[in-house]
Specification:
The protein is an alpha+beta fold. The protein has two domains: about 260 residues, Cathepsin B, Chain A (Alpha-Beta Complex), CATH 3.90.70; about 180 residues, no CATH class. Helix content is about 25%, strand content about 25%. It contains eleven helices and 21 strands. The strands form three sheets. Strands 1, 2, 3, 4, 5, 6 and 7 form a seven-stranded antiparallel beta sheet that branches.
Length: about 500
């Protein structure tokens, strides 16, 4: 009897201890909707993902937030930012992790939390909004934990703020709407981000069973009934997935110490992940540096990869709209450049009737920023991609974006003539609205407008292998500039 009572006492004590684990994520849908969202990709983009992907080799030893409501700061600074840093060190070492200590440069959760918490939160119990954490890390970065040790109420000194500027993230985007109910999209979008090599911050509803998983995988209990704990919502870091583990599961890094679950990590099956996740935010760090012609531009990441792109047009009937390469564009008739190379354009090999319904798909083999503009003989240019103000142009590797979508089409108007599409593959973010304004303020043909507007940002046609019989290109080594233009002429009658 004494043994039974003692065992029951220990069990209840462990359960109570588990229940006391802190959370700390403030869930604020309006602010989450301000984050640029990642473009929905085509079915083929998701089907091409590997069966598993992992960033675990870049992870520091899982942190422990103790009894403070600082999970957001741990998920974003201690874990996500440290992973990005360690990944960069590996890239600079040509993929080797041999001499990299993943705990050597852990980033301070206190640096983030103390600057985004409510000023009345003297005991670090009120939690924080992940939106504020990402805004801070993009604008001001993060200092290392050796500079700002983990504590509650610490002052962030000027030297720490100066250090933080050296470790800013370059971009972030939310993977799906906070109102999303499509479980399959939640799973595919998160897997795609991990397969691209980037960690994600996860906003998670915490049921009772999650505090004390039985082994390396968490499975829902029949008694789970909504959020629990002070905040009920918890921020963690997604660092991997595997289609063949536990029926398909995500690998998640938590901030409850190494005695929790699988030494601080846990596997969450896909179906449960989709039910309990409220948001996933993908973050980007600086790319490995490469030699740049001319003076260096600080804080402007340049993607050191060889870009390959392709654009495919398709009628609503499924028929392919083929095109061939030509020099320049008919928009430039009578207005040819007297200096420099002519840009390359593609022309549809036949005219289409007004009212023809079609879509086009833009594919990139490597990470880049995608923009598309449309114009006609009137000369007025319109931006069509990103097609919403809050849509991110940042597209991951091996991805295809459909315009207007895989299931929708656009229709040629009833004014016969020629329409023109300009697609830009950029290795740096462009100010699309400013570029649009500039294009509309310039005179001349389309190619001349592009050359005037982008100047030395344009990559020379000599450095681009444009495909002769389909709309696409392969970027050559040793190029200068950061933008590949693709121009397409579409005649309708």
């Amino acid at each position: 009897m004494k043994i039974f009572v003692l065992s029951l006492s220990l069990l209840l004590g462990a359960y109570a201890s588990a229940q006391q684990r802190p959370t700390g994520m403030i869930f604020d849908p309006p602010s989450l909707r301000t984050i640029p969202y990642k473009a929905k990709l085509t079915t083929d983009s998701y089907q091409a993902m590997p069966a598993s992907a992992s960033l675990e080799k870049y992870c520091p030893t899982p942190g422990d937030q103790g009894q403070y409501g600082t999970c957001v700061a741990f998920a974003t600074a201690y874990h996500l930012r440290t992973i990005l840093y360690n990944k960069l060190q590996s890239e600079m070492a040509h993929g080797s992790m041999a001499n990299i200590n993943t705990n050597a440069a852990i980033f301070s959760p206190t640096f983030v939390y103390e600057q985004i918490k409510n000023q009345s939160d003297n005991n670090c119990q009120e939690g924080a909004n992940p939106v504020d954490a990402f805004i801070l890390m993009k604008k001001f970065g993060a200092a290392k934990i050796s500079t700002v040790p983990y504590s509650c109420g610490a002052s962030i000194r000027p030297n720490a703020k100066q250090e933080g500027l050296n470790f800013r993230i370059t971009d972030y985007q939310i993977l799906y709407s906070v109102d999303e109910t499509d479980a399959d999209l939640k799973i595919k979008a998160t897997k795609k981000a991990i397969s691209e090599g980037y960690p994600c911050a996860l906003g998670f509803i915490v049921p009772e069973s999650f505090y004390n998983p039985r082994g390396p995988v968490w499975r829902e209990a029949s008694t789970d009934n909504g959020p629990t704990g002070q905040h009920g919502r918890h921020a963690m870091c997604v660092v991997g997935y595997d289609d063949n583990k536990y029926g398909g599961a995500f690998r998640v890094l938590n901030s409850w110490g190494t005695n929790w679950a699988d030494k601080g990590f846990v596997w969450i099956p896909y179906a449960a992940f989709a039910r309990y996740s409220m948001m996933v935010i993908q973050a980007y760090g600086p790319a490995a540096p490469k030699p740049q012609p001319g003076p260096a531009k600080p804080d402007v990441p340049v993607l050191d990869v060889l870009l390959k792109g392709r654009v495919a047009f398709q009628m609503n009937t499924g028929e392919t709209m083929s095109a061939v390469k030509v020099a320049g564009s008919s928009l430039d008739a009578g207005n040819k450049s007297t200096t420099g190379e002519e840009l390359v354009a593609y022309k549809m090999d036949k005219a289409y009737a007004s009212g023809t319904r079609f879509r086009f798909m833009i594919t990139t083999s490597t990470e880049c920023f995608l923009y598309a503009f449309a114009t006609d003989l009137s000369g007025k240019v319109n931006k069509i991609l990103p097609f919403a103000d809050n849509m991110s142009p940042h597209i991951g590797s091996n991805s295809t974006v459909a315009f207007p979508s895989e299931t929708k089409v656009v229709k040629m108007d009833e004014n016969p003539g020629t329409d023109y599409l300009l697609i830009l593959y950029a290795q740096q973010r462009l100010n699309a609205d400013e570029l649009l304004s500039t294009l509309n303020s310039l005179s001349g043909g389309l190619t001349q407008k592009i050359k005037k507007a982008l100047g030395d940002q344009l990559i020379s046609p000599a450095s681009i292998n444009y495909h002769p019989n389909d709309i696409g290109f392969d970027l050559k080594k040793g190029h200068q500039g950061t933008v590949v233009p693709l121009m397409v002429e579409i005649k309708h009658q």
